[in-house]
Amino acid sequence: MAAKRHPLPIETRAEVIELSKAGKSERQIALQVGSSKGQVGRILRDQRDKIENLKDVQGNIPNNLKRRKLVDIAPKYCEIENACVLFLERAKEHGIPVTGPMLRTLALREAENCNIQGFSASEGWLDRVKRRHGIHGRHLSGEAASANKVVVMNWMEQIPELIEGYDPKNIFNCDETGLYYKQTTSLSLVMPGDACHGGKAQKERLTLLICCSWMGEKVKPLIIGKSTRPRCLRSVDLENMSISYKSQKSSWMNGDIFSWWINEFESLMYQAGRKVLLFMDNATVHNIVEQMEFRAVKVVFFPKNTTCSTQPCDAGIIQTVKLLYRKQLHNFILSALTHECGKVDPYKEINLARVIVWLFRAWRDLKPATIVKCFSHCGFSKAGDIVEPQQTPLLETEAETLLSAEEEQMEIFPPVVEPEELFDKVVTELKDQLEEVSIQAIAPTEIITTEDDVAEIPNNKQVLQALETIELYAAGRGDDEVLGGGFNLAWYRQIIEERAHMEATQTTIEDFFKKTSL
């Protein structure tokens, strides 16, 4: 097996070029830099080719290609570049974001201090610096920089003592998060020459509270909206929905709502005869629990400014739920623009009833193994092995695929009015059909049918509309077993979606040109 090639660092390659300019032979240079004669020869030939190419076709190549040819050449302003890299490392230690204009300003100051003439800190120079050092832009991760590592380590050492005497299934964590339920992304693919203009930002916001146990048990979520009685839920019993709903003028969590929720949670645990440990952050609205007494719940607060490292919900549970929700949203938008030829504005069709169904699906599809891994990541461990559910953990690559709306094709569902009435009608029709089948089985007779007597088989879109209506009704009535596929509704829905995708006809460019009579 041939040995792998090890390219010389850029500093050594620059030294080879300088030694060659000084008149030394390739053999002398190879001995001095500790390389082979052949490698030195290749470096010098490449350098000569680059110079010749720049001289011969200087006016015939784009500027970006010229910059690429110069990337591998030793930097001209090493002092300035090193100062910028050092500044970037110091800013990273303090969690301070650094932008391109900041580095260019720093470079100009450094050039002035070093009496360097002719340096302009252009965009091209900054681009070469970033490529040489592998610098690229990223989003800073919330509170991670402000978390005190010593406090986090001390907290994790205290966890075994705090959870002593509690079974992992009785250790819970709750947390709130904001959900912009119509928002997708600010990035978009565009055609060449198209202006990148978006519509009005979708800023409709809900507050979502989730709670789950160390072993993956999931409590009914709570959402907080602005309207006391949303119009799309006017015929629904809000107290018995699959997801609890409360209202606040700014759709924020407040003391009254949180005290109601924790009392409901405590009542649920007490009726089940359980003693549980509930971990939460020290948000101001949570301080109300210090004035409350519980029979079945003991509340423990995480240290301040450490929840990014100590709270399981912040370790990936909330992010996964949002990704699963966004998958539902993307599928809906994709269907609206595909099957309705862009005639329907998808955002106008999104109401709270649909959001409740999508959130229920996201919460249902969250794997218990994901919750277990998030608890373990935050230091929850005790004596004895904890058996994880036999499911594949959610990996980062899987989380990325959740955003792929092209994997599933769904039909557009129109707004449903009075789902209870339509559901009752469906049930009545099914009963009538069953009675007719029973009568025919008891006294079979010769039946002559005509084309008018044969019932038309509904198409995929009609069936999906009916299933959507049933799902909205089930969410409003708290029939979790229906939404969860208790009688194969979820399985049948998946079958119909696959049929709709397979039977969909792809539009070609010829479809847009039709013959017209003169």
Automatic annotation (TrEMBL):
Domain HTH CENPB-type positions: 68-139
Residues that span the membrane, as ranges: none
GO molecular function: DNA binding
Gene3D superfamilies: Homeodomain-like (1.10.10.60), Winged helix-like DNA-binding domain superfamily/Winged helix DNA-binding domain (1.10.10.10)
Keywords: DNA-binding
Coiled coil region boundaries: none
InterPro entries xrefs: CenT-Element_Derived, DDE_SF_endonuclease_dom, Homeodomain-like_sf, HTH_CenpB_DNA-bd_dom, WH-like_DNA-bd_sf
Entry GO CC: nucleus
Pfam families for the chain: DDE_1 (PF03184), HTH_Tnp_Tc5 (PF03221)
Similarity section: Belongs to the tigger transposable element derived protein family.
PANTHER family given in the database record: PROTEIN PDC2 (PTHR19303:SF73), TRANSPOSON (PTHR19303)
Name of the protein described by the UniProt record: Tigger transposable element-derived protein 6
